[in-house]
Specification:
Layout lengths: L2 E5 L12 H7 L4 E3 L8 H10 L3 E6 L19 H18 L3 E3 L11 H20 L4 E5 L14 H11 L4 E6 H7 L3 H8 L3 E5 L16 H10 L5 E4 L26
Parallel strand pairs: 1-2, 1-8, 2-3, 3-4, 4-5, 5-6, 6-7, 7-8
């Protein structure tokens, strides 16, 4: 059965960020993920993980100037030096937090005519990140994101994410398969899971179309969670959704799936 990780960027927003670790543990989560840890010292986050017996499932490398609208650096020509520094920062945090999955965001490419150049930069940058991450035992994951939530994002299709993994050719570069984004952009989610499972390194879930709990909407999550088991997926499933109310009040959906505390190593 799936092992669920609370997403502390979207979940438990009724609490201050550092208090969300205890809230997640109190609700039975054994793993957590979030977008960015960099507003807090790594040692402070590590203490919250330790004190609440939580595993660190995933976080993102620095994305550039998020407040100004940037959404990653990996595919941006002319930003390679900044990208390399961002990977150094992320891996330093990962070493303290015990994290084995690092999401590296591609960035925005609103000019369709520039895609080939962006693609070449992207592959080169991900290859560099993979080399740096390998010695740390970290896997780089690439997420296709829908254009409704993030217009202009460079990577939008699951197969394109898999193609970048193949182009890099490193065994520690894999797909971050977000079921919510996949449904919005392409549909036929179960077929894509079956086809891409060999290169999937992380999974995330949210209801479609409103990104609330995975208990209503277009996707039949009980079926998809069973399919993940059938396909042998042994990693975390990140709960990257915005609760309709408080996180705890909306956790009824998870009851049939309680029991597996953490994924296989």
């Amino acid at each position: 059965m799936p092992a669920f990780a609370a997403n502390l960027t979207m979940n438990y927003v009724e609490c201050d960020f550092l208090d969300r670790f205890a809230a997640a543990a109190a609700d039975g989560f054994r793993g957590v993920e979030f977008l960015f840890p960099y507003a807090h010292p790594a040692s402070e986050i590590q203490a919250r993980l330790r004190d609440n017996d939580l595993a660190m499932a995933l976080f993102n490398a620095p994305p550039g100037d998020w407040a100004a609208g940037e959404r990653g650096l990996a595919a941006l020509p002319g930003r390679q030096d900044e990208f390399r520094r961002s990977i150094e920062t992320a891996l330093a945090y990962a070493a303290v937090l015990g994290n084995r999955r690092l999401h590296v965001m591609a960035g925005l490419c609103p000019d369709g005519d520039a895609r080939a150049r962006h693609h070449d930069v992207y592959v080169d940058n991900i290859a560099h990140a993979a080399r740096q991450a390998r010695d740390a035992g970290v896997t780089i994951v690439l997420e296709a994101i829908n254009t409704r939530d993030m217009p202009g994002y460079f990577l939008t299709r699951q197969e394109d994410a898999a193609a970048v993994c193949a182009a890099v050719g490193a065994d520690n570069v894999r797909v971050q398969f977000d079921l919510y984004h996949a449904q919005i952009m392409q549909g036929d989610v179960a077929t894509r899971l079956r086809a891409l499972m060999p290169v999937i390194g992380h999974v995330q879930a949210a209801g479609v179309p409103d990104r609330h709990e995975p208990d209503d909407g277009e996707l039949a999550y009980p079926y998809l969670f069973r399919l993940l088991d059938t396909l042998g997926y042994a990693g975390w499933v990140g709960c990257e959704y915005r609760p309709r109310g408080t996180m705890r009040a909306g956790l009824g959906w998870i009851e049939p799936w309680r029991g597996r505390s953490a994924p296989s190593p």
